Amino acid sequence: MPDASIRKALKNGDFVLAPGVFELISALIADRAGFPALYVTGYGTVASALGLPDAGLATYSDMLDRISLICERTNTPVIADADTGYGGLLNVAHTVRGYEQAGVTAIQLEDQEFPKKCGHTPNRRVVPLEDMVKKIEVAVDNRRSDDFLIIARTDSRTGLGIDEAIRRGKAFAEAGADVVFVESPESEDEMKRIADEIDAPLFANMVNGGRTPLLSADRLKELGFSIAIHPAVGFLSMGAALEKAYADLKQNGETTDAVELYDFARMNEVMGFPAVWEFEKKYAQV
């Protein structure tokens, strides 16, 4: 079942800050950190599961398999990327029902043409506005619970400009989207315009190295945003740590103090080994 806490936070004016997770270690560690939500990033999930770019190559089944496991193993409400809904209107209905059944609390759907591209890369094209409005209507009609939130994203800013992005955001809200996501605004002034002109809870994508300025949660809330995701912080920090650790091992033939490692005992705890050991004591007589 969707977690009502995000809808409640939006109603109360509380800010929702969500780190990006992309596989089970990142999800389990983030789950213990006390965030109000976790964000299953498409970029990171496709990269970790398939070793491929986020360019429409992952299928609905690829994503649902990973998302289902993340929801099953964590206690924090999950916001999940669903790209374009993986096809036409019937696919959108199927995707909404599947994500909700998997335990997702908020689904993100976007107006890109298929195959989609990462929102902070060039050459993105969007479908006609009326096509995306129909997708939102289908999504709203096919959810089982009102606590399952529909986040409607437009990628029109980069190719068509901020005026068109705001026009679409307004139309998405009128179509029934619970949260509006204007992807990759290019300045704080543009972000202020989005907040001033779209009457709906707003979603900010804080991508390290992306097109949008990185702002604090406090500043985003001050501007009028309700939710911020940091989708890349997990896989970018992991990539930096792994590159450094593997280089250290290659150079020295062993792990040196130059590399900071996660405590092995703590990792055992995160993975749930204490429960395994208690089980063995009770049943296996070890």
TrEMBL record:
Identify one Pfam family in the record. PEP_mutase
Q: What InterPro entries does the record tag this protein with?
A: ICL/PEPM, Pyrv/PenolPyrv_kinase-like_dom, Pyrv_kinase-like_dom_sf
- Superkingdom classification of source: Bacteria
Please list the GO terms describing molecular function: oxo-acid-lyase activity
SUPFAM superfamilies assigned = Phosphoenolpyruvate/pyruvate domain
User: Which PANTHER family does this chain map to?
Assistant: CARBOXYVINYL-CARBOXYPHOSPHONATE PHOSPHORYLMUTASE, CHLOROPLASTIC, PHOSPHOENOLPYRUVATE CARBOXYLASE
Q: What is this protein called?
A: Carboxyvinyl-carboxyphosphonate phosphorylmutase
Q: Which organism is it from?
A: Pseudooceanicola batsensis (strain ATCC BAA-863 / DSM 15984 / KCTC 12145 / HTCC2597) (Oceanicola batsensis)
> What taxonomic ancestry is recorded?
Bacteria, Pseudomonadati, Pseudomonadota, Alphaproteobacteria, Rhodobacterales
